[in-house]
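Task 17 of the worksheet. Students: predict the tertiary structure of the chain below and write it out as structure tokens. Keep your answer in the requested format; marks are given for formatting as well as content.
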Amino acid sequence: MQLFYAPEITLPQYTLSEEESKHCVRVLRMKHNDELHITDGRGNMYRCKIVDDNAKRCVVEVVETVSNYEPLAYQLTMAVAPTKNIDRYEWFLEKATEVGISEIYPIECDHSERRQIKAEREEKVITSAVKQSLKAYHPTLHPMTRLSDVVTMPFDGQKFIAHCNDSLGEREYLGRLIEKGGKTLILIGPEGDFSEEEITFALENGFKSITLGKERLRTESAALVATVITSTINKL
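Model answer:
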């Protein structure tokens, strides 16, 4: 299956962007009457055939629409502090999209080394992963958000904060707490961890302290491990 992403797709015919047209016709060498798939990122998968194989404005016709295509059996929101080396954060975005995630909040914390991201660039990373992993749902990337705003926003589900501070009470392994088919929000801090004040604030607002295992993990590794644990529990 060759999958393209077009949130603004129109029926019954749609013209691919110049970039996507070039990729389709010149790179993939697709021709008139060849089939491809398009997703709008909202769960709709469109089976299409090429009616005009122009390398600058390839036109396709939708021949079948599948709604709610392979939805996640759970909802996972990850709030993760961007790393100083943005490549590592983009690695997390790519892999989490492949595994399965609903929303991502880049968060600004007391110990953050990076307080801005290039949203357009990060969206491209996510979109590429959506196409590569053949998903019909495009995760939502929120703007850079202060940790306090994420902690206090309404959320109807389980809320966890991963940290390494042993002085603030017992931390339980995430895999023992995840409820299958539910909504989950997980906070992952920067390389210097959350501050004691941030952890206390989260606990006061209904978050539970968690550990992801005995290993000491970098931010992007911890975020991916939490994503994989959530996905695995929901597949058992």
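Marker's comment: The helical segments are 18-27, 86-99, 119-132, 147-152, 196-204, 219-235. The chain has six helices and 13 strands.
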